[in-house]
C-alpha cells in the first residue's frame, strides 16, 4: 500500500481558544492563522461564528487572508449556526462547515433533552443545510466515545449518506484509552456500509494524558485526519498537541506507512507564538517544544551527545526550527544593521518602528548581560510580535520600593502615543499590586489581574525573566501581556502595560463598531 497522507486539522483558534482564561483578539487570530499557513496545516478551524460577532468577523478575515489552507467554521446542528458559519466562510478559497451534535445518551438526555431519533433527524437536516452551502462538510457526533455503538454507526451512516465528507469521531471528555480507541475506528469503518465515502478524523482530549496516543491509535486504524492544537491547548486538559503527533509521524511514520505535509521547521516558532499570545507558558518537560526537550542533564548523556547527537536524541532540534540557542550571537558592539539582519535570519518580520524599539531594548540588555543569545533576542521580539498595533502607552520610568516592613510603593512615568508624559504613584499589597494600581490610574482603567507568572529566558544570574500577565475587564474579557527584562519588576510593569494596551485597543475598536452600527 502507498504511504498515505494524514491531514492535519488545526483547532488552536477554536478548541484552543476554549482553554479557560484564553481569549485572542482579531489581530492575534489573524497572526496565528498566517503562522499556521506557514506551518502548512491542511485545515484551520478558525472559530465558531455564531458565538459572537467578533468570532464571525475573525473567521471572515481569515477566510479572506489565508488562501493556502481549507478554512473551517464550527456550528451546532442548528440553522442559525450553520448560516452564520457560511456567512463567515463564503469568501474562503476552500470553505468547510463543521457541524456537531451530542450523541451519547447522557448528553442527549440531560443536556439536549432529546431522543436518539430527534438527534438523528436534526443531524441529517443540518448536514443537508450545510451541504447546500459547500461541498466540504464535516460532521462530529459529540461525546462519541460514550455513545451507544449501534446509534453511532447509524448516525455516521446517515451523515455520510446526506453528504458529509469528513466524519470526526471525538473523544470529547478524554475518556478513551489507545487500544479501545483504535478498535472503535476499526469497527466503525467495518460496520458503517458507506464508510469508504468519507475521511475519518480523530479529535482526542487529554483528560487522561492520552490524547496523542489515542490519535496515533486512530491513525493505525485508518484515520486520515488528526484534529490538534499547538502546545496542546484546549478545553480542560487540552487537545492533542499538534507538534507531538506530527513529530511522532515524522519520526515513526514509516512504521505506520503515513506522513503529513507539515513544515516541521515552523513548529518551534508557532509554539512560541501561541505561548506568547495565549499567555499559557509551555511546561519545561513538554514533549517536542518544552525548554528541556533537547537538554541533557546527566554526564553520561552529555558525553554521548558530544560524540554523536543521535546517541541520545531521536529528533534533530533543527528539524523543528529550534534556533541554535546556546551560541553567543550578538554583543554590545553590534549595530542596528546587524541586529535587523539577525532578526530577519531568525525569521521575524517586524515593522521599522518595532525594530527600532527592539534594538533599543537589545542595547540596554547588552549593557547588563555578558552573553546574549537567540533566546534573549526572541524574548525581546516576543513583546512586539503578539499583536499588530501601535501601543497606546509606553513605560518611561519606574521606581518601586518594597520589603518586609515597607509599604510597597510604585512610582511610574508613562508616555501616551502622542509622546505626552504622565506620572503617578501608588501603594499596594506588594510591588506588583502597586505597579498595577499606578498604571491603572495613569491609563484610566481598572481591570483585575487574573494571571501572573515568570520564567527565566536563559541560564545564569543575569538572565532575563519573561513575565506573563493576564487581566480581565469588567465585561469578563481576558487579555494577556508579556515582557522580558533582567529586572522582573520592570518586566512585570511592561507586561501589565502590554495587556492594558491590548484591552484599550479592543475597547476602542468595539466603540467604533458600535458607533458605525448606530449610524
Ligand atoms: O470535543 C469535542 O467534541 C469538540 C467538538 C465540537 C468536535 O470539540
Ligand atoms: Zn474538543
How would you describe what is shown here?
This protein has 519 residues and is of the alpha/beta class. The chain has four domains: 7-278, Aldolase class I (TIM Barrel); 292-321, no CATH class; 323-385; 393-514, Double Stranded RNA Binding Domain, CATH 3.30.160. Helices cover 42% and strands 20% of the residues. It has an eight-stranded parallel beta barrel, surrounded by eight helices. α1 (26-39) runs parallel beside α2, α2 packs parallel to α3 and α3 packs parallel to α5 (116-133). The longest helix has 31 residues, at 488-518. The protein is globular, with a radius of gyration of 25 Å. The relative contact order is 0.08. The model has no long low-confidence stretch (mean pLDDT 92). Bound molecules: 3-methyl-2-oxobutanoic acid (KIV) and zinc ion (ZN). The site of zinc ion (ZN) has 6 residues, from loops. The site of zinc ion has 6 residues, from loops.
Please describe the topology of this protein.
Blueprint lengths: L3 E2 L1 E4 L15 H14 L3 E5 L5 H13 L4 E7 L2 H11 L5 E8 L2 H8 L3 H18 L3 E6 L6 H13 L4 E6 L6 H14 L7 E6 L6 H10 L4 E4 L13 H15 L1 E2 L7 H12 L20 H9 L20 E3 L5 H10 L6 H17 L3 E2 H12 L7 E9 L6 E9 L4 E8 L2 H13 L4 E9 L8 E8 L5 E8 L2 H31 L1
Parallel strand pairs: 1-10, 2-3, 2-9, 3-4, 4-5, 5-6, 6-7, 7-8, 8-9
Antiparallel strand pairs: 11-12, 13-14, 14-15, 16-17, 17-18
Helix pairs in contact: 1-2, 1-10, 2-3, 3-5, 5-6, 7-8, 8-9, 13-14, 15-16
The structure holds 3-methyl-2-oxobutanoic acid and zinc ion (ZN).
Amino acid at each position: 500500500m502507498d504511504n498515505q497522507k494524514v491531514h492535519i486539522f488545526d483547532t488552536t483558534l477554536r478548541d484552543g481558544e476554549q482553554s479557560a482564561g484564553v481569549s485572542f483578539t482579531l489581530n492575534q487570530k489573524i497572526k496565528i492563522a498566517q503562522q499556521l499557513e506557514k506551518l502548512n496545516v491542511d485545515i484551520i478551524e478558525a472559530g465558531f461564528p455564531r458565538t459572537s460577532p467578533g468570532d464571525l468577523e475573525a473567521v471572515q478575515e481569515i477566510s479572506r487572508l489565508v488562501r493556502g489552507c481549507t478554512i473551517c467554521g464550527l456550528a451546532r446542528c442548528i440553522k442559525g449556526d450553520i448560516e452564520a458559519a457560511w456567512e463567515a466562510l463564503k469568501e474562503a478559497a476552500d470553505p468547510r462547515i463543521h457541524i456537531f451534535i451530542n450523541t451519547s445518551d447522557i448528553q442527549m438526555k440531560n443536556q439536549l433533552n432529546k431522543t436518539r431519533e430527534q438527534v438523528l433527524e436534526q443531524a441529517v437536516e443540518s448536514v443537508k443545510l450545510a451541504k447546500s452551502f459547500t461541498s466540504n462538510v464535516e460532521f462530529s457526533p459529540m461525546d462519541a466515545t460514550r455513545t451507544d455503538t449501534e446509534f453511532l454507526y447509524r448516525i455516521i451512516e446517515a451523515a455520510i449518506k446526506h453528504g458529509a465528507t469528513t466524519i470526526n469521531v471525538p473523544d470529547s471528555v478524554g475518556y478513551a484509552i489507545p487500544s479501545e480507541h483504535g478498535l472503535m475506528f476499526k469497527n466503525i469503518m467495518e460496520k458503517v456500509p458507506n464508510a469508504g465515502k468519507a475521511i475519518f478524523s480523530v479529535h482526542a482530549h487529554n483528560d487522561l494524558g492520552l490524547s496523542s496516543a489515542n490519535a496515533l491509535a486512530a491513525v493505525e486504524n485508518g484515520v486520515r485526519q488528526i484534529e490538534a492544537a499547538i502546545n496542546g491547548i484546549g478545553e480542560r486538559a487540552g487537545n492533542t498537541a499538534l507538534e507531538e503527533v506530527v513529530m511522532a509521524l515524522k519520526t515513526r511514520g514509516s512504521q505506520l506507512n503515513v506522513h503529513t505535509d507539515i513544515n516541521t521547521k515552523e513548529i518551534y516558532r508557532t509554539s512560541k507564538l501561541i505561548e506568547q499570545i495565549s499567555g499559557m507558558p509551555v511546561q519545561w518537560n513538554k514533549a517536542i517544544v518544552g525548554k528541556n526537550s533537547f537538554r541533557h542533564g546527566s554526564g553520561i548523556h552529555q558525553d554521548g551527545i558530544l560524540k554523536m547527537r543521535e546517541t541520545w536524541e531521536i529528533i534533530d532540534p533543527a528539524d523543528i526550527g529550534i534556533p541554535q540557542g546556546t551560541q553567543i550571537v550578538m554583543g554590545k558592539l553590534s549595530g542596528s544593521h546587524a541586529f535587523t539582519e539577525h532578526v530577519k535570519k531568525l525569521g521575524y518580520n517586524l515593522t521599522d518602528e518595532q525594530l527600532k524599539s527592539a534594538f533599543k531594548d537589545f542595547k540596554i540588555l547588552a549593557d547588563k548581560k555578558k552573553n546574549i543569545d537567540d533566546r534573549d533576542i526572541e524574548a525581546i521580539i516576543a513583546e512586539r510580535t503578539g499583536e499588530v498595533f501601535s501601543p497606546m502607552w509606553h513605560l518611561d520610568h519606574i521606581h518601586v520600593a518594597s520589603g518586609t516592613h515597607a509599604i510597597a510603593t510604585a512610582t511610574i512615568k508613562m508616555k501616551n502615543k502622542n509622546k505626552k508624559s504622565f506620572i503617578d504613584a501608588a501603594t499596594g499589597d506588594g510591588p506588583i499590586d502597586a505597579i498595577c494600581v499606578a498604571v491603572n490610574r495613569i491609563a484610566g482603567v481598572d481591570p483585575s489581574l487574573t494571571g501572573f507568572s515568570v520564567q527565566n529566558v536563559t541560564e545564569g544570574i543575569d538572565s532575563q525573566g519573561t513575565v506573563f500577565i493576564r487581566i480581565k475587564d469588567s465585561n469578563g474579557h481576558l487579555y494577556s501581556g508579556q515582557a522580558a527584562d533582567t529586572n522582573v519588576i520592570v518586566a512585570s510593569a511592561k507586561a501589565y502595560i502590554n495587556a492594558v494596551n491590548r484591552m484599550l485597543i479592543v475597547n476602542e475598536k468595539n466603540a467604533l463598531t458600535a458607533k458605525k452600527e448606530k449610524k
